[in-house]
Every structure is written in C-alpha cells, then in structure tokens.
Amino acid sequence: MKNFARQLSLTSYAFIFLLLQAALILFLLYGNHRVSRSYYDQLNKNLEKDYQASISHYREFSETFFQMTVQAASTFSLFERAISAPPKERDRLRSALYVEIKPIFLNFKNIFRQVHFHLADGTSFLRVHKPFRHGDMLTHRKSVQLIIKEKEYLEGFELGGHFYAIRYLYPLVDSSKKYIGSVELGVSFKQFRYYLNNLSPGEYFLQVRSEVAENTLLITGKRNFQVSPLSDAFIMEKVDDDLSGSSIEQQWITPVVLDQINKKIKSQAMDHLQQNKAFSLVTRIANKNYLISFLPLRNIIGEDIGYLMKYEKDPVSVFIKLGFILAYCIGTIMILALLMLYRWSTNKIFNQLILQQNIIDSIPTPIFYTDAEGKCIGSNASFNETFTQHSSQNPVVSSLKTTLPDGLTEHDFSKGSDVTEEEIVLPVPDDENRYFYCYKTRYCNPMSNSVGLVAAMFDISSRKHYEDELKKSHKEIQQIFNSVANGMRVIDKNMNVLRVNDRFVKMSGRSSAEQVNQKCYDIFGGKPCMNDVCPLKRILAGVARVQSETVKSFPDGREMPCIVTATPFYDSAGQVIGVVEDFNDISERKEFEKKLELLSYTDELTGLLNRRGFMERAEWMLILARRQNKSLFLIFSDLDDMKDINDNFGHKRGDQALGHIAELLTNTYRETDIIGRLGGDEFAVLFFDGDKETPPHITRRFDKNLKIWNENSIEPYKLSLSMGVVLHEPLLFENIEDLLHRADLAMYEVKRARKELRS
C-alpha cells in the first residue's frame, strides 16, 4: 500500500478518469437507449389499447342497436318472412322493415354510417342508409364471405370500394337455429378516428398498402387517399382539418408541420414499414419534439393491410435527454470526488500504517517477571506505563504478589506443566479495574534451576466489554424477535421447535415452554408438512427462501390461512442448521376476498343474482335437471311502463320499483329457485317442476302478490309485469341462452296479447 500510494502519479489519475468517463458514457448511452425504447414500446402499447378501446366503445353501441332493433320481435319477423316471400311481398316487407328501423337509425346516425341487411347467400336485402339500393351480390366482400362461412359474429376494419370503416356483423338465425342472413353496422373511419382523438389527443391517419388499395378501392374511395409521403408502397389518408376546431385544438398539428415531419422521418420509416410490426419515430421541428407511432392494421379477416399512424407532440423525449445530460454531470462529479477521496485516503492510510508500526515497535505487550519467591523484580515499559503514571515509578509492583493469584512457587510448577494461564483483574491508576489474560512460564538459570517466572499480560477488557455487549445484543435480538408483527419460530433439522416469539405464542394459545422441543407439525401443522413441499426439507435441499400461501392448523382444531415465509437458520460457521418460519395471518384478507366474490355475482340494486351469477347457476341447474331427468320452468319478465315511471317520477323511483319487483319475486318463489336480474328491467326465475304445474298456475301466485302490493302501496304508480313462461324438458339439449330466448319470445307474445285486448 505504501508504494502504490507513493507511485500513483497525476498522469495515472488522469488516465483512470478518462477510462471511467468512457465507461460512464457507454453506460448512460445504453441506459438512454433502453429508457427510450421502453417509452416508445409503451406508447405503441397505449395506441393498441386505445384502438381496441375504440373498437369496444362502438361495439357497445352496435350491440345496443342490434338488441333494440334487429333482435326486436317485430323487426326480426319482417326479415324472416321476407326470405321466403315472393318478389312483391318481399318489397313490401323490405319497406316495412325500413320504416321500423329508420327512427332508431336516425338516432344512431352520428355513430353508424351504414346499416346493411344481407341474405344468407350474400345478396343485399336492405341498406337502411340507402334504402333504394338492394339486390346486388356482396360475396366479393371478405367480411360477407367469412360470416356466410362461419356464421358467427365478426368485427374489425374493412376497406370497401367506396367506404372504409370499422364493421360489426351479426349473424341472423331463425327459431330453428338456421342461418338466414346477417346485418352489418359500419362506423366510418373518420368517426372512429375522431373518437380516438378524443380518447388520446393526436393526429391519426390511415396508411394502406398500395396493392391492397388497388384491388379494393374504387374511384370514389381513392379520392380520400394520396400517395404516402413516407413510401411509394403505401397510400395515406389526405390531411383532414376537421379536428382543428375540436376541444383539443392545442394538440392539432398543421399540414405544413406534418409535411416537414414526414420528410424528416421518411428514410427511417421506409426501413420499418415492410416489417408489419409496431414502431415509433421521433423528430424535432421548430424546437418541438414530435412522436410518430405506427400500429400494424389488420382487416376483419386478419390480413395485414397497412398502419394506423398517430402524430403527437412529445415533451418526454426532451426530459429523457436532459436526464442523460444530468446523469452525466452527476456521474462526472462523483468520479472526480471518488478519485480525490481515494488519493486523500491512501495518503492518510499510509501515514497511519507508519504510525502503527512505530507503536508496535516501541510499545510491546506488558510483561513483568518475579524471583523464585514470587516477588516482582522487574517490568517492561508497557507494563510501567499501564500501571503507573510515569515509567520510572511503579507503586503497584510491590503489591503484585498479593494482587496476583497465590501459588506461583517452585512447588506449584513441579506438579505439572511449566506454563500456566489465568484471567486476573488489576486496578489501573485513574481508571476502573481492567481484565488481563496472564500467560506465565518459569525461567531457569544455566544449571536448569527455576529462579522465577515471566508473565505476559494481554488486556482483555475489550473482550469482556464485547461479551457484555453480546449478552446485551442477545437480549435486544430477543426483544426484536418478540416485537415482530407476525408469528415466528425457529426449527432445527430434526423438526424440533427451538424458539417462538410472543406473537406466535398469542396465535397458538400455548406458552413458549409448551412449544419448545416439540415437533413443529404437532404445534402448527398443515398440508405442506411431512412431504416434499415442507419448507424445512426444501431449504435443507438448497432453496434460499420458501414462501407459500397455505392453511395451517393448531392442535385444538383451529385453522388459519396464512403466508408462510421460511429462510435458512445458520450457525456461526455459515452452515444451515434449521429454518426460521414467519407466519402472516391473512384470515381477514380471505374474508374480504369472499365478500368480493359474492359481490361479483350479486346485483347491487336489488340484491338478486346479477346476469353473470344467474347464468352460471342456471347452467348448473340445467345439468342437474338432465342428470335427474327432471323438468324446469323458466320465467322471463320485464317491468311494464318502466320508462314512464322514470320519466314521470324520476330514476330514483324507477330503481325503487325494480327493488319492489325483486322483493315480490323473492317472497313468491322458493329459496331453492334461482332468481336474477338480467339487466335493466328484466328478471328471470328458474326452478324445478316439482308440482307438475302449468304456466298460468306458475304466474298466478306472483300475480296475486302483485295485486295485493298495488292495493296497499302508497307509491304514485302501479306495478305491472309481463311474464313469459317456458318448460324445459330434460331430453331437450338446449343451453340457458336458448331457454332465455324462448322465454323472451313467450314474454313478447304476452305483451302482444295484452295490446290486442286493450285495442
């Protein structure tokens, strides 16, 4: 260390500084790349989420429109009858279908640009947006081809000849489950892009592969596109200024800036565009950073057709760069500080080593020697300095014979070894008593006669102090062990309990004495005990840490769900001699999880089963009915005039009305019957046909209770419920959706009959 500290020159320090600088720059460049890459990847993921969220947003509207119109009994009946009708009758039914749907379509027109009914062979039956155009064959459209083939719901982007949009296609089946056609709802990409803009501010553009557009777009469709400024292999939507007046105008990027951005990123973009993978590019225009994200776009049948592009202002990249510069400055300062500290410390250590060496040379271990009679006849400088104020004075030496242990005589040495070792306590001037370890041996004259002894004294006061501190530490560790919030115990290799803390004593209800030296599985056992997943066995096998969630049991039968964390217990040599187990009681958390699970199946307003809970239990009851060869009744109902109650008395009254219906259903039917609110004002009851009843008898009990409620109610409205009842025979292999559909039709038949009676 002496030579190193002396020979390391300023040139060497400068060289080390440059090496550390190079390492720092490489590390920061790598970190900057990783941070930027992670940031861009996250932005691409966010764009993908926004795109899917927008798809889902319009899917909800499409499902609402589909349920309100297409699935309505009157609408579906018109389409179903038109399939097999002669031409004139079909035209009449088409007109009636248009009249039926048009009012609702006008309400949704700002969402759906197209509503299109197709026959089973792909022939256009009715374009609600263009009612006078029909009869053309649509099988050239891939979405129509796919739904005819698979007869399942479809959604996604499709590039049409005139119209490119997000399309939602629903298959239409008759009562015999036969596919009879489909209906398509189209959201224009401009409308879809506007929603994306409001969801996440920026400029969105559609970029389509030229070969795809050439094979699909017609002249009217191509007017919306231009050759992409990024690659001749793509065409891109023309710049749309409509967003400039929106609520996010501050995010709008002018066409001039867009053109500048495209010119700067063109070469980079061309390298990525053919890979069909998401990527992001950053550029700087007029002292502002812009981020351009590219999301691969697939059509409704999963073909790669281009990209969804998002242009947005990007202040984060500036901060990443500033962070890189700041980190470099801090790192440079730290390198300089460390080198200066190293130089200062090495010089200081060198000087200390010289000082320590001088001390060792000048102050040896305290030594004293006596004559054959045990009288002290001399001592070294260290001894004098230890026991006297001045080395020339030695008031303690004359009394050493009485201070030291008795028996230091020739006779004592003759009994055994020539060497003795003892621990003694001696008073030190201006200090308390100090502990010494005295190593004594006799010395002889030339004739081998013992003439006295030599004693070397080693000060062990510090060791005594450390032993006291160690005992204190043991007490403190025990206090900490007992203060831990979780229950803890220590187990040896033989599964014997060595120690438990106070929390574990409280958890188990047994004292520490009742548990120590007992087998761990007898005190607090469970499934992991006595097998290969035992924490002790796994740690002895080399696992560094074991954590698991399990249910443990006490000898009195109590069970406790807990998280068990086991770590090795080492001896002073670093060998594993057991395990330390930590038990975190999670009983309250488990109870909370059960409550959450209950809420997921319960309708918050009425306390009945929600749709999810009803469907799961109903499927189970259908399976049970088939196994036991029993029949089931399903009641499907909705609250009449619910809209009038909400409009005239407010939605709070409407919610109360739903609650009253739920209470009447609960009081009318059995606890074993499945009662649920399927949504809105729709309720359903499913139960076994235990009494061989008929539909009128099934609803009669409820009608009676409903009549009593209306007679006694102080509410400003009367309750009326339309109920459709269907019977499920065990030999009918229908699922709950099929059964609900039949009940729904039965309910609407009841409604229709009531209307005819009123008229």
Give your account of this protein's structure.
The strands form five sheets. This protein has a six-stranded antiparallel β-sheet with strand order 7-8-6-11-10-9, with helices on both faces. It has 759 residues and is an alpha+beta fold. The chain is 47% helix and 25% strand. The radius of gyration is 45 Å and the shape is flat. Helix 3 packs antiparallel against helix 4.
Short description:
The protein is an alpha+beta fold. The chain is flat, with a radius of gyration of 45 Å. It starts with a helix and ends with a helix.
Overall 3D shape? flat
Strand content: 15-25%
Write down how many β-strands occur, each being a DSSP E stretch of 2 or more residues.
26
Helix-strand makeup class: alpha+beta
Number of helices: 24
Straight-line N-to-C gap: 111 Å
Helix content: 40-55%
Low-confidence stretches: 1-5, 243-250, 389-416
- Adjacency order of strands in the biggest sheet: 7-8-6-11-10-9
**From the alpha-carbon coordinates, what is the Rg to the nearest angstrom?**
45 Å
Oligomer: single chain
Query: What's the mean pLDDT score?
Result: 81
Largest sheet features: 6 strands, antiparallel
Secondary structure blueprint with pairings:
Blueprint: H1 2-7, H2 10-70, H3 73-83, H4 87-107, E1 114-119, E2 124-127, H5 142-150, E3 154-159, E4 164-173, E5 179-188, H6 189-199, E6 203-209, H7 210-216, H8 219-222, E7 225-227, E8 234-237, H9 255-273, E9 279-285, E10 288-298, E11 304-313, H10 316-362, E12 367-371, E13 376-379, H11 381-387, H12 400-403, H13 410-414, E14 419-426, E15 434-444, E16 450-459, H14 461-483, E17 487-492, E18 497-500, H15 502-508, H16 512-515, H17 520-523, E19 525-526, H18 535-540, E20 546-553, E21 559-570, E22 576-585, H19 587-600, H20 611-628, E23 632-639, H21 642-649, H22 651-668, E24 674-679, E25 682-688, H23 695-712, E26 721-728, H24 736-758
Antiparallel strand pairs: 1-2, 1-5, 3-4, 4-5, 6-8, 6-11, 7-8, 9-10, 10-11, 12-13, 12-16, 14-15, 15-16, 17-18, 17-22, 19-20, 20-21, 21-22, 23-25, 23-26, 24-25
Helix pairs in contact: 2-4, 2-6, 2-10, 3-4, 21-22, 22-23
